[in-house]
Write a structure and sequence with these properties.
Elements (H helix, E strand, L loop, with lengths): L1 H60 L12 H10 L9 E7 L4 E2 L14 E10 L4 H7 L2 E10 L9
Antiparallel strand pairs: 1-2, 1-3, 3-4
Length: 161
């Protein structure tokens, strides 16, 4: 009879371990997926921030790619920003280019002669973040990730002044 009692105790412990695992496992998986999704959100923010910074840098440092000065080259600014957003697909990214001092925004930038030496260009990049994990998506919903960068444009001085 003693042999039966010893085996019965081990089966009871196995059942208790299974119940404990069933209680703890969802919390562990929620924690694991939460950490993974936090990493994805950080990667999305980094891409959005870098895209805005690169768009503003393009407008202030480079020569225009389409025959117009870079500081009013909407297509060039947007292309430079999109090139620096590798984690985001093109449909998820919204890029807004604004000239707060000169009064203009893409797709109709100010005329090059309307931009002064101390004017600024502002590039705003937005993207929606949503988790593919249903419970995290239900908890967080869609998160709009946005970054804005402003730089002073370089307008060459005329030689005849």
């Amino acid at each position: 009879m003693m042999g039966l009692g010893a085996g019965a105790g081990k089966r009871g412990e196995l059942g208790a371990s299974l119940v404990e695992f069933a209680i703890v496992a969802p919390l562990l998986f929620l924690l694991l997926f939460g950490i993974i999704e936090s990493g994805r959100l950080l990667a999305t923010y980094t891409s959005v921030y870098t895209a805005a910074r690169e768009g503003a840098r393009y407008a202030t440092v480079t020569a225009g790619s389409t025959g117009v000065p870079a500081y009013v080259d909407c297509a060039g600014i947007e292309a430079a920003a999109r090139a620096k957003a590798p984690f985001l697909s093109g449909s998820e990214v919204e890029i807004e280019v604004i000239w707060p001092d000169s009064g203009g925004a893409c797709p109709t930038p100010p005329a090059p002669e309307a931009v002064d030496r101390q004017d600024r260009v502002k590039v705003v990049v937005r993207s929606e973040f949503s988790s593919p994990v249903p419970i995290i998506s239900a908890l967080l919903g869609n998160i709009t990730v946005e970054s804005s960068q402003q730089r002073t444009v370089f307008v060459p001085e005329d030689d005849d002044e």
